[in-house]
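Help: why these numbers?

___
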Amino acid sequence: MRSNSRAAGAAGENAAADFLRTAGCIILEQNFRNGKHGEIDIIASLGNLIIFVEVKSRNSGHYGGALYSIGAGKRRSLVKTATAYLVNKRPSLPPDIVFRFDLISVNGNEILWIEDIIRNR
């Protein structure tokens, strides 16, 4: 069962990466890990924008769908991992870089791109 979930997750991430490429993005990283602190499914760029993308593959909208699967702990993990990426890559990044966190939900053949899922308040 677990290997089926991993295969579905990998297929969803590949579909999301293809979708982003079609939208004009350049895929910088897939499955970027920050030690034990977390993973970002896709890191993409679009001009001077870096997009940290969480991909959720779902078979249904039960339990609130993909957007509601991003809790406070996952948000903290995404921010920590993105910070590590930015610090590590800083010398090679343009000075006017901006970034945001997006979610791509893959449900069968349907792909939904939700921009800016984490906003500092």
